[in-house]
Write a structure and sequence with these properties.
Helix content: 40-55%
Number of helices: 4
Largest sheet: none
Number of strands: 0
Structural class: mainly alpha
Radius of gyration: 17 Å
Order of helices and strands: HHHH
Oligomer: single chain
């Protein structure tokens, strides 16, 4: 049984962080520095950028060394870029029911 959130394994913490948006990760970075370390947040952001918020082939993205800490604002930029990309995509001229 887990008696404290500090006893949760680091991989599980990273997994939890992959479900959050950049704004939420920025809040965690400021509020819970002892639990959600910069390494955990950086690893989660790296995963999100490469696998979720990618505009190109993920294999083409350069691997970021683990010594570099990725900030949540980088993820925010990727989120906004994906939204703008989706909005600028051509829309179908006809659809079902028309």
């Amino acid at each position: 049984m887990i008696k404290s959130i500090k006893n949760i394994h680091q991989e599980l913490m990273i997994e939890i962080c992959t479900y959050l948006r950049a704004v939420d990760l920025a809040t965690l970075k400021e509020v819970c520095k002892s639990i959600f370390t910069t390494t955990i947040l950086s690893t989660a952001i790296d995963y999100l950028v490469k696998n979720i918020y990618t505009l190109t082939n993920p294999s083409k993205l350069q691997s970021i060394p683990s010594s570099i800490q990725i900030r949540p604002d980088y993820l925010f930029i990727r989120e906004v870029s994906c939204i703008l990309y989706a909005l600028s995509s051509p829309q179908p001229t006809t659809g079902k029911g028309q």
